[in-house]
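Q: Please design a sequence for this.
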């Protein structure tokens, strides 16, 4: 069984669909015969751009609150690096908040190629 990772990021609500498509196209969210599987939840992102930042939203030294979407999905270890690269490319923030960690995923064994039970 391949090692699974949970991947979580937060994105402005109006960019969520683009990020979901990008990470799904890169291989995130593959569960059985399904692709692009994810869980999303609305929330509020809070941040203060500091000196040297190039904020997508807001201005340096000013606290911001933004409607964001939390995106969670599983990613097979073999594609994690390319999924994170796709996430960064699709995300509008200079430095997107993201995290991943290994998880114990319990998947059914794939059926034999000839269709007979093992």
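A: Design:
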């Amino acid at each position: 069984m391949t090692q699974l990772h949970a991947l979580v990021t937060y994105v402005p609500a109006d960019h969520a669909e683009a990020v979901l498509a990008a990470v799904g196209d890169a291989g995130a969210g593959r569960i059985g015969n399904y692709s692009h599987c994810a869980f999303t939840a609305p929330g509020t992102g809070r941040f203060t751009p500091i000196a040297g930042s190039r904020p997508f939203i807001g201005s340096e030294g000013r606290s911001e609150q933004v409607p964001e979407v939390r995106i969670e999905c599983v990613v097979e270890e073999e594609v994690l690096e390319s999924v994170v690269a796709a996430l960064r490319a699709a995300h509008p923030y200079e430095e997107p908040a993201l995290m991943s960690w290994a998880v114990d995923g319990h998947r059914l064994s794939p059926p034999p190629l000839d269709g007979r039970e093992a």
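Q: Thanks. Anything notable?
A: The CA atoms of residues 11 and 17 lie 10 Å apart. The radius of gyration is 17 Å.
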